[in-house]
Amino acid sequence: MKKFIKIIYLVIITFPLLFLNLAKASEKLKIGILAPMTGPNKNLGQSIIKSIRLAVKDINSNLIEVIPKDTSSSPEKTLESANELKEMGVRTVIGPIFYENLIYLNEIDDLTFLSLTNKTLDLPKNVISAGVNSTSQLNTIKKFLKETNINRTIFLTPIQDYEFEIKKGIQNSKIKIFKNYDYSIEPTKLTEQIEEITNYRIRKQNLEDEITRIKNSDDSNKENKIKKLKQRYTLGGLNFDAVIIADFDKSLKSVTTSLLYTDVSPKKKYFITLNQWFDQSLLNEINIQPIYYPSINKDNFENYKKKFFREFDEYPNHLSLLSYDLVGLIYYLSSKNDFLTTGKLFKVKNSFKGMMGIFDIKNNKINHRLNFYKVEDKKLTKIF
Question: Which of 44, 155, 206, 231 lies deepest, with the highest CB count within 10 Å?
């Protein structure tokens, strides 16, 4: 057994090193999988299952037995399959994928579910959210704000089903926010709200008033001054240094477009958003660059995709990388506890370095230490 480095009871081990440190056990480690194998999400489910099998192959241990069961993306089928896994002696399960399928799992004792959801509110007591949650993302943004000495940050949250997850993340991370705003994703309302948040009408009126004042003045250079002012859209400063936009895809672009319309430029104020999973379309949005966001380790993600393609001749869903790491995490924690897969595995403070990055585990909670990226000039750059 290799030596583990302990720092204040925190043990960090890399995935590759884990494979070389196999503890001996008399019983197999049974890992259940709850994923959609039929129905509209079956392709995602197959990607998850293949990823888990790839992780088992990389660990190269005959101690692991993987048992997949179908959820059909249905809470009722999820419960049925979970009971089957329990009867087969499984104690730790990767899945379900979707938050909506968790609702009946608190009826099952003696099983711990590592769900791939990033939602953390109102979970059954035997479910651990393993996804990249809002707390992990905001911890990373908080680090960037501190290192960049940004003190006045406004936070924009859409009125969506994940609104309270974001607010819980703000609370957990203790990120310093100057002002919080909720906004509607309906375009007309959104524009009006952004105008109000940025004091657009006041700043626009300031410009008009200044042009009128100079026109009526005796300034000999007033024509040049007026010409320069007419090249602007507003006059007057903003009371914030950065804006965090908790949104994605087209809705994110609608918010940034509204900010540009109200004369808020990413060249002068930091535009920061949440994990975009390296959305390629952002690279082409020159007008909203630079824009920053936290995410997983991109180099490792690219290497994993190549590995997956070599094995299966197809590219994986990004969630499958999480399931790959969870196999290593379960194996690591189990090997430290003589392969006794009890619910206590995830209560003790530990850290595990997987392909995504570092997982921090404590009190049945998982947070991720993420990297931070900048999109500028059609390029993605890692900040840390």
Answer: 155
Q: What is the DSSP-derived secondary structure letter of residue 153?
A: E
Decide if 6-131+298-353 and 134-198+238-295+373-382 have a common fold.
yes
Chain segment 102-130, per-residue pLDDT in tens = 999 999 988 999 999 999 999 999 999 99
What's the CA gap between 63 and 27, in Å, rounded? Answer: 7
Strands 358-362 and 350-353: antiparallel
Contact status, residue 158 vs residue 246, Cβ threshold 8 Å: yes
Place of tokens 């979707």: 98
- What are residue 239's phi and psi, to 5 degrees? -95, 25
Rg (CA), the chain: 25
- Superfamily of 6-131+298-353 according to CATH: Response regulator (3.40.50.2300)
Residue 383 CA from chain centroid, whole number: 17
Is 134-198+238-295+373-382 in CATH node 3.90.440.10?
no
b or e along 53-82 (b: 16 or more beta carbons within 10 Å of the residue's beta carbon)?
bbbbebbebebbebebbbbbbbbebbbebb
Say whether pTM exceeds 0.85: yes
Q: Are 294 and 141 in contact (CB under 8 A)?
A: yes
Q: In this structure, which long-range contacts are made by residues 123-130, counting pairs with CB atoms below 8 Å and at least 24 apart in sequence?
A: 126/343, 127/102, 128/346, 128/364, 128/365, 128/366, 129/365, 129/366, 130/322, 130/326, 130/366
- Confidence band (pLDDT; 50, 70, 90) for 9? very low
Domains in the chain: boundaries: 6-131+298-353, 134-198+238-295+373-382
Give the CA distances from residue 313 to residues 64, 188, 295, 302, 308, in Å, rounded to whole numbers and listed in that order: 25, 46, 26, 15, 8
Place of tokens 């039929």: 38
Q: Rounded distance, CA 343 to CA 162, Å?
A: 28
- Output the CA–CA distances (angstroms, integers) from residue 328 to 5, 28, 74, 101, 375, in the order listed: 18, 15, 27, 24, 31
Helices first, then strands: H and E counts in the chain: 11, 17
State how far the Cα of 366 lies from the Cα of 343, in Å rounded to an integer.
14
Taking alpha carbons only, the member of 87, 140, 138 closest to residue 111 is: 87
